[in-house]
Amino acid sequence: MNGAPPSPDRARDDRPVLLVLSHLRWDFVFQRPQHLMTRAAATHEVLFFEEPVFEAGAQPRLEWFERGAVRVLRPVLPEGMSHAVAVAAQRALLETVLARRAGRPLVAWYYSPMFLEIAPQLPADAIVYDCMDELSAFRGAPPAMVEFERRLLARADLVFTGGRSLYEAKRGRHASVHCLPSSIDVKHFAQGRAEPVEPESLRAIPRPRIGFFGVVDERMDLELVAELAALRPDWHLCMIGPVAKIDPASLPQASNIHWLGGRDYRELPAYLGHWELGFMPFALNESTRFISPTKTPEFLAAGLPVVSTAVTDVVRDYGPHGGEPGLVEIAQDAKEMALKAEMLLRRPRATWLAQVDARLARDSWDLTWSRMEALIRGVRAAKRRPGAGVPVAARAARAAEPSHV
């Protein structure tokens, strides 16, 4: 159903409505929102409301896309519309959707505080802020982001964070902040250990192959990538992912750097299964100060050793501790990354893989979602009690919280 209104039978669904307001498009990269909402759709009608697209001569409308059991809603607005008019148009479109579902429980789930512009007073039974990044530190962030986050924190019943650094940054700003880092679909990525068919785009690339997958943006240290390629011209760096917010012409070029573009989530295990190592060449700047890369456990689940720059959450959660080696090697610069990678290429993997599997057995996206859902149920139950308000709901959620990471 593309561009059509919701079907009456779906509108009569009596499950709670989970309205997701997301700056990340569903079809961009399969990551935290997609993992969580795919699971949420088993018990909720999930409506994934994206940022608008602008078309010449368009009449304001919503396009609808079915993505499994999730329904993606994309506003289409005419080019040249002022910001204020565009906000009003999106608000009207969203109100029409919610009017068809009036009387059903509603959970409002914000990924960006900027959606408060179009959804400032939703009649929600629970308001969730799933803070997966410090968006105000990203290139091109609206100046008003910090103020809108302050307002969202004042309205939210629950705040989830995608890593420990974000948790530490937000826990003093709300009564019910919960550290629920991005998790792992072990079964999916473990396919990389089972000798998958080699992707066509890799077959002409010599070995050893050192790979990265993810969005290529200001968080990547492009100079480090270029230096590593120059230090080890016999290694081939395989770079998977869409380029965003940076000029593609700025990507370093060399005979042993291969920019392969985006790939479907379903294809990733096959690529990882034909790399010798993974690497995470993150820049250490404001945009990476609070990140907790989902790809870290995904590399590990595929059985792929990985070396990373010293991203705080990677160091604390996967790096060496107390004199013991970590699951991930940490490097300060390209020279150290080359040395650590050489060590990993030589190192036997059996002991390391056993440690990896013991660690990954502790987490899953199913478990993360079940924890989140329990906290939401606690908020809704607390609000139904006579005289209950947001502080009561926050206390109920805090009592139901699992131990922090």
Key features of this structure:
Rossmann fold; 405 residues; disordered C terminus; disordered N terminus; 14 helices; nine-stranded mixed β-sheet; alpha/beta; 2 domains
The CATH class of the largest domain: Alpha Beta
Count of discrete structural domains: 2
Helix content: 25-40%
* Rg, nearest Å: 22 Å
CATH superfamily of the largest domain: Glycogen Phosphorylase B
Beta content: 15-25%
End-to-end separation: 41 Å
| Shape, principal axes of CA atoms | globular
Total strand segments? 15
Low-confidence stretches: 1-9, 390-405
| Biggest sheet details | 9 strands, mixed
Listing every helix as H and every strand as E from the N terminus to the C terminus, the arrangement reads HEHEEEEHEEHEHEHEHEEHEHEHEHHHH
Number of helical segments? Answer: 14
Q: Provide the residue-averaged pLDDT.
A: 92
Given the helix and strand composition, which structural class is it? alpha/beta
Question: Any idea of the CATH topology of the largest domain?
Answer: Rossmann fold
CATH architecture of the largest domain: 3-Layer(aba) Sandwich
How would you describe what is shown here?
- There is one protein chain.
- By secondary structure, the protein is α/β, with parallel strands linked by helices.
- The protein folds into 2 domains: 8-183 and 367-400, Glycogen Phosphorylase B (Rossmann fold, 3-Layer(aba) Sandwich); 186-360, Rossmann fold (3-Layer(aba) Sandwich).
- 34% of the residues lie in helices and 19% in strands.
- It contains 14 helices and 15 strands.
